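Annex B. Sample input.
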Amino acid sequence: MTMIPEIPKEDLLLSSYDYNLPPELIAMRPCSAGRDQSRLLVYDVEKDCLTETLFSKLSEYLPSNSHLVLNQSKVIPGRIKAMKNGEGRGKAELFLLDGHPLQKTETGEVFRVLIGCSGRKKINDSFILEKENIIARIVEISSEGEFHVEFESPSFSEKLDEIADLPIPPYIRSGVADEQD
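Annex B, continued. Sample output.
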């Protein structure tokens, strides 16, 4: 019988992940010499020390019986600025979770979305997209906090590059994407 090691309890305290990261150490662009030449910080548990090296040397730090899982996901243009439709018309941000619609309807396409705006969100709340005069309407709310939103444009997914921006973290160029991204 194989013994399964005890898994430590998750540390969910935000303060546990606070550390000082000087702005000059935050990469604003990918490494121009190639991805394998990007910097890599390695923590040695046994020696309790940090080593700064290059990603191309990763194999030197992995035990021989390691399994390396490669993530080839791609960031999609998924950040959409909008205004609430109706009373109070405040700002909103719709964040697509997938680049493909869940379903096509007679009037548009439904996507999985996170919504950032003030106030409670409910089914049939609608938004007007800033870059296009397209209405986005909440058609379902999941228990996980995501929304199914219908974008009332039959070819919405084909226009994503024009309508949506790449999501850039707020600590990189104040969260504003540009052509190089």
